């Protein structure tokens, strides 16, 4: 079901088709935002795991931006806006507890979302651990600082060892906070969520989903 969050941001809410919800789940997409790929993913997560899922756009009002434009203007995004939408998306699931997961830029915000203390568990798929230089902006806080104002132990970070967006020294800093890090050797950025990408690795992706699903089944 298409909805608008209180901010006006477009979102999609999908409940399990044949069961009651066991939890809520907020999904933050990659830099290309809300699109059929993520609507289909939300539907799959809802039906397979009995979750009520809400996924929202990262560039409200600018949904037609091309990838280069999105990367170039990432520094204009504000944590208060994105995290505010994440909390509103959690409310839209009408569930408690609510978890959050994100991919790429969305994974970075899944790390930052620990600061809201709204979510019982978090999963970041190859989210940036430090804000990239080209994304720096007055509204962009550092993920490591924000997650430590929440509960780092509630976070699972899924990483590829060949991912330039999450270099080893960043991963080491992340692990030192108490975040659980699962690193897949020879995997690159984006290896899980889009089967059309050259980086996709089906065996590793299946295991990453197993790890993530189990993470959200644990008691907080």
Describe the structure.
The protein is α/β, with parallel strands linked by helices and 220 residues long. It has a single domain, classed as 3-Layer(aba) Sandwich (Rossmann fold), CATH 3.40.50.1820. Strands 1-2-4-3-5-6-7-8 form an 8-stranded mixed beta sheet, with helices on both faces. Helix 6 links the parallel strand 7 and strand 8. The protein is globular and about 45 Å long.
Q: Which tags fit this structure?
A:
about 220 residues; globular; single chain; alpha/beta; eight-stranded mixed beta sheet; Rossmann fold
Task: Provide a short characterization of the protein structure.
By secondary structure, the chain is of the alpha/beta class.
Helix tally equals 7
Order of the strands making up the biggest sheet: 1-2-4-3-5-6-7-8
Question: What string, H for helix and E for strand, traces the elements in order?
Answer: EEEHEHHEHEHEHEH
Integer average pLDDT = 96
CATH architecture: 3-Layer(aba) Sandwich
For the record, the count of structural domains works out to 1
- Helix share, percent: 25-40%
Topology:
Blueprint: E1 2-4, E2 10-14, E3 23-28, H1 36-49, E4 51-56, H2 67-72, H3 79-92, E5 98-103, H4 105-112, E6 122-125, H5 143-147, E7 155-160, H6 168-176, E8 180-184, H7 202-217
Parallel strand pairs: 3-4, 3-5, 5-6, 6-7, 7-8
Antiparallel strand pairs: 1-2, 2-4
């Amino acid at each position: 079901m298409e909805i608008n969050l209180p901010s006006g941001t477009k979102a999609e809410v999908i409940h399990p088709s044949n069961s009651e919800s066991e939890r809520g789940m907020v999904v933050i997409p990659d830099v290309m935002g809300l699109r059929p790929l993520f609507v289909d993913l939300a539907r799959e997560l809802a039906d397979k795991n009995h979750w009520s899922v809400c996924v929202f756009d990262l560039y409200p009002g600018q949904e037609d931006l091309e990838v280069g434009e999105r990367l170039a203007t990432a520094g204009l995004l504000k944590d208060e806006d994105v995290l505010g939408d994440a909390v509103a998306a959690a409310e839209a699931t009408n569930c408690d507890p609510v978890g959050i997961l994100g991919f790429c830029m969305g994974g970075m915000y899944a790390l930052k979302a620990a600061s809201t203390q709204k979510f019982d568990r978090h999963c970041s798929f190859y989210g940036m651990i430090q804000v990239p230089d080209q994304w720096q902006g007055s509204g962009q806080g550092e993920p490591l600082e924000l997650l430590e104002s929440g509960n780092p132990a509630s976070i699972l970070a899924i990483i590829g060892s060949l991912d330039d967006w999450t270099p080893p020294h960043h991963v080491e800093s992340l692990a030192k906070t108490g975040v659980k890090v699962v690193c897949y050797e020879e995997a690159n950025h984006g290896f899980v969520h889009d089967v059309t990408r050259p980086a996709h690795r089906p065996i590793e992706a299946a295991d990453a989903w197993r790890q993530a699903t189990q993470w959200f089944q644990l008691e907080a």
